[in-house]
Write a structure and sequence with these properties.
The protein is mainly alpha-helical and 83 residues long. Helix content is 81%, strand content 0%.
Length: 83
């Protein structure tokens, strides 16, 4: 007898995905909080002046790539809701 989709347990890849998503949610929240503190405490000009410019530019690029990935996920969610 075959179990329905709702009755079966999660396979190892599904468990890994859920674990990875929880880590991602925590890290996104952490990044948001750190950036909020920086914005609240310091002027952007001071951040630019004291930053390691190569590292800051790399961070900006990574955040841009992550943002674009989140936008694709958002657009896919909107598209699926319209069906």
């Amino acid at each position: 007898m075959r179990k329905s989709e709702n009755e079966r347990g999660l396979n190892i890849e599904e468990v890994r995905l859920i674990s990875d998503l929880r880590i991602m949610h925590a890290k996104v929240y952490e990044l948001y909080e750190i950036v909020s503190v920086l914005k609240r405490r310091h002027d952007e000009s001071a951040i630019r002046r004291f930053a390691d410019h190569a590292m800051l530019n790399q961070d900006i690029e990574r955040v841009d790539q992550t943002y674009l990935w989140f936008l694709r996920l958002k657009e896919e969610g909107i598209r699926l809701r319209k069906k």
